[in-house]
Each structure stands twice: as structure tokens, then as C-alpha cells.
């Protein structure tokens, strides 16, 4: 069973920055794969923030375009968050989807709290 370890959340003032990281316990992430970040605010459904497909194609939610950047280094993904707004407050979850043989695996991190407040 692959584990995803997240870090980097915290409290930040509006306009500030944070970087989240998520490392998989395996160094083997086969292609095709979709790696990314989701978030869930209180009383709301979990929503996509950003994904990267097979290390090439990136997709961002409209509300974070131009402010958030998703990157990958081997078995770790990062989410650089700039110009943070109070509406970015949520629990952020990393997600990794990739095949092992013919089996599609869907792994989630434990979540890290991001709070944007003055």
C-alpha cells in the first residue's frame, strides 16, 4: 500500500504564500498517471485545485490560475500558492492515480489545513 505524506500547511495572511508538498512512499509511479491537489472547505464538497498528467499536462481550477503552481520531482509533488485569499482556506489533499500492472490505484494524503486570515 502506497502512503502519501503531506506537509506545508499553516496559517498565512491574505496575500501571503505557502508551499505544500506530497511525497509518495514508492519511487515507482508508472505512466500514465494523474497527480494533483484537491481541497475541501467547511460545508463544501471536495474540489480540484490542480493536476499534472504523466508529468506533462497541467490543469488548474479557474480560481487559482495565475496564483498557484503545481510541480513534480520524481515521487513528490508541490503546490506553490501565492497571493492567497481567505477563500483559499480549506483542507488540502494530495492525490496520486497510477497503474500497477492492470490495476488502477487511487491514493490520497491525509490532508493539510491551510488557513488564510488576518
Description of the molecule:
- The chain has 118 residues and is mainly beta.
- It has no helices and eleven strands.
- The strands form two sheets. Strands 2, 4, 5, 6, 9, 10 and 11 form a seven-stranded mixed beta sheet that branches.
- The radius of gyration is 14 Å and the shape is elongated.
- The termini are far apart.
- The mean pLDDT is 95.
- Would you report the number of β strands? 11
Please count the helical segments.
0
- Given the C-alpha coordinates, what overall shape results? elongated
Q: Estimate the mean pLDDT confidence.
A: 95
Structural class: mainly beta
pLDDT < 50 stretches: none
List the secondary-structure elements in sequence, H or E. Answer: EEEEEEEEEEE
For the biggest sheet, the summary is: 7 strands, mixed
Question: What Rg, in angstroms, do the CA atoms define?
Answer: 14 Å
Our estimate of the beta-strand percent is over 45%
Give the N-to-C terminal Cα separation: 40 Å
Helix amount, in percent? Answer: under 10%
Q: What descriptive keywords fit this protein?
A:
four-stranded antiparallel β-sheet, elongated, 11 strands, seven-stranded mixed β-sheet, mainly beta, 118 residues
What is the structure about, briefly put?
By secondary structure, the protein is mainly beta. The protein is 0% helix and 57% strand.
List the helices and strands and how they pair.
Blueprint: E1 4-7, E2 10-12, E3 18-24, E4 33-40, E5 47-53, E6 57-60, E7 68-73, E8 76-81, E9 90-100, E10 103-108, E11 112-116
Parallel strand pairs: 2-11
Antiparallel strand pairs: 1-3, 3-8, 4-5, 4-9, 5-6, 7-8, 9-10, 9-11
Amino acid at each position: 500500500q502506497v502512503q502519501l505524506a503531506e506537509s506545508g500547511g499553516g496559517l498565512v495572511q491574505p496575500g501571503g504564500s505557502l508551499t505544500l508538498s506530497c511525497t509518495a512512499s514508492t519511487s515507482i509511479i508508472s505512466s500514465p498517471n494523474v497527480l494533483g491537489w484537491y481541497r475541501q472547505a467547511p460545508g463544501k464538497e471536495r474540489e480540484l485545485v490542480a493536476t499534472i498528467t504523466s508529468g506533462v499536462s497541467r490543469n488548474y481550477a479557474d480560481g487559482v490560475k495565475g496564483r498557484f503552481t503545481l510541480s513534480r520531482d520524481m515521487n513528490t509533488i508541490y503546490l506553490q500558492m501565492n497571493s492567497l485569499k481567505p477563500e483559499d482556506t480549506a483542507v488540502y489533499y494530495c492525490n496520486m492515480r497510477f497503474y500497477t500492472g492492470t490495476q488502477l490505484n487511487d491514493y490520497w494524503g491525509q490532508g493539510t489545513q491551510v488557513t488564510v486570515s488576518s
